[in-house]
Amino acid sequence: MRSRRCAGSVGSGLSTDRPAISISALARRFGERTVLAEVSVEVPAGATLAVLGRNGAGKSTLLRILATLLRPHAGRVAVLGEELPRRGWAVRGRVGLLGHEPLLYRDLSGRENLRYYARLHGVAQERVEQLLAAVQMTARADEPVRLLSRGMVQRLAICRAVLHAPDVLLLDEPWSNLDPAAGELAQSLIGADCGATRVITSHDPESALAEADVVLALRDGRPSFVGQPSGLDTGAVRELYA
Amino acid sequence: MRAAGAILRKDLLVELRTLETVPAMALFAVTVFVVFHFALDVATLSGQLAAGVLTATLLFAAMLGINRLFVAERDQGGFDAFLLAPVDRSAMLLAKATALFVFLVVLELVAVPAFTLLLLARAIVPLLGSLALVLALTNVAFAVIGTLVSAIAVQGRARDLVGPLVALPLLLPALIATARAIGPVLALHGAAPPGRWLAVLALYDLVNVLVAYAVFDFLLED
């Protein structure tokens, strides 16, 4: 059974000198529309990058590129030392994505969904039960996902994202639909102390900045700020969402 | 193989839960046979005419299954989740083609008896072995081509139209070979399927399996 990997370089085979995520002049288009342009940022192993911006700023697109689901159209992207998309295959299985969609089959139960993904990732079935217990979903695990509330579905989606103990977690508004109690439960799995390198997007800049080691602010796909949270004041945040 | 097995198991479980695909295919086939029973001005069919009716009906019933093959992946994010896993992309091809093959076998378990009852001029039992052989080879063709076409169509618009438009011409050689192979089997005095047409079907299946394996990866990638 796979054990949870420790923070950053330990157990991941990544040198402490090499960033877990390295992006340089990244660009991505959808047809004629430029969604990302000239995006550059580095995220040290074990650190948290908060990506801020309005709707349509390119946050989710950036996460999908890091997850190897989309190809960059320009620039250089490396995750865990592997250049994308050329060596995307080496990164799959070491990255966990929690996106807008839970990626769960609605007609299967939570347990069946997680067992399916455990088989895909070569993870022991015991891990499924551990995670269900961690988010207090064991009692509802045999109900079809379509009958569960959004908060319960989000808890299952978190389980799916961390099932294979990834080194990098890509979290697109992870705390949405979670009540405070569920949020507390999820902290050990995807919170700042989970050990993985994290990229978080959020519509709540204050909470995102509180968790972040590095901040990337996007405006119409272009970076308007890259640096530490202390360098981004309240006025700049307000302007970002204006 | 582990990944293909996991996907196949999931697909069969979803189908058992929802019964969205196979019942629709079977109902379509039986309905068509009923229509032919009343519409054709003959009491019973045999030979090449019977083979044509059976082949065409199975084809269009199969298209219902082909159109639905990747719907769950598209609508519920299964594609993304699969692409995130460290598995060979061809596992999806193998699993989906196998699932479609299973659906077609179940379809034929309903459709062939219905065809015999409503339209055929002779008993089917002495012919079952020969018929099963031909239909098995045909099912492989439907399964492989259907999976490829469904993967192409599901990611675009007008997918319910694109699937049949692309699949039907590609399946034409298999359909001709199937009809020509089954014709003698369904003749009044029954005969073995001609080896030539079995060989055409087998060769067509082999070529398409190789082509599907070669191109499938590119269909899933951005």
Helical run tally of chain A: 8
State mean pLDDT of chain B (0 to 100 scale). Answer: 90
Let me know the number of strands of chain A: 10
CATH topology of one domain in chain A: Rossmann fold
Strand proportion of chain A, as a percent range, falls in: 25-35%
Number of domains of chain B: 1
**Largest sheet of chain A, described in full?**
6 strands, mixed
- Please state how the strands of the largest beta sheet of chain A are arranged side by side: 6-7-8-3-9-10
Q: Distance N terminus to C terminus of chain A?
A: 48 Å
Give the proportion of residues in helices of chain A. 25-40%
Q: Return the string of H and E elements of chain B.
A: HHHHHHHHH
| Residue windows where pLDDT falls under 50 for at least 5 positions of chain B | none
User: How many whole angstroms does the radius of gyration of chain B measure?
Assistant: 18 Å
Short description:
Chain A contains eight helices and ten strands. Chain A is an alpha/beta fold and 242 residues long. The model of chain B has no long low-confidence stretch (mean pLDDT 90).
Features:
heterodimer, A: alpha/beta, Rossmann fold, four-stranded antiparallel beta sheet, 8 helices, 30% helix, globular, B: 222 residues, mainly alpha, 80% helix
